[in-house]
Amino acid sequence: YNLYIGNKTDSIIEFSASDSRLYVIAEVYYKDKWQPIEYLPSSWCGNSYHTVYLKPNEYWEFEIPKFKGKILTKMRYRLMIGKDEYVYSNEIMMSFNKGQLSDKEGHKPNGIMDPYND
After folding, report:
1. Percent of residues, the chain, with pLDDT higher than 70
2. CB 79 within 8 A of CB 87
3. I want to staple 74 with a disulfide (CB 3.0 to 4.6 A). Which of 29, 47, 48, 114 is the partner?
4. Average pLDDT for the chain
5. How many CA atoms lie within 13 A of 47 on its CB side?
6. Going by DSSP bridges, is the β-strand pair 13-18/49-54 parallel, antiparallel, or unpaired?
7. pTM score, two decimals?
8. Residue 4 has what pLDDT?
9. Rg (Cα) of the chain, in Å, rounded?
10. Residue 111 and residue 46: Cα distance in Å, rounded?
């Protein structure tokens, strides 16, 4: 699948990023609420954090995984645009497994140079 983030305004939009990743995650509707099925680790390295810019009438295109599992439900993507401010993608039908609801994906730090040790 593809996920598009577009700017239909007449101004440049700023997005916070970490290591060139936007703060965007997949969520599924499960047990009457939206729940994340992806995790973005934080970094202790100050150089990881920066801003990216999307010009007017431009867009970014991202390939997103096609999740498969035993539970059929709706999925959407949540993009952080400010402190406690989000925009949401259209919803699509997909399936997932309950194990994907865990907060972290099992990353294990590889020493002091690994910026993701949360």
Report:
1. 85
2. yes
3. 29
4. 86
5. 3
6. antiparallel
7. 0.80
8. 96
9. 16
10. 17
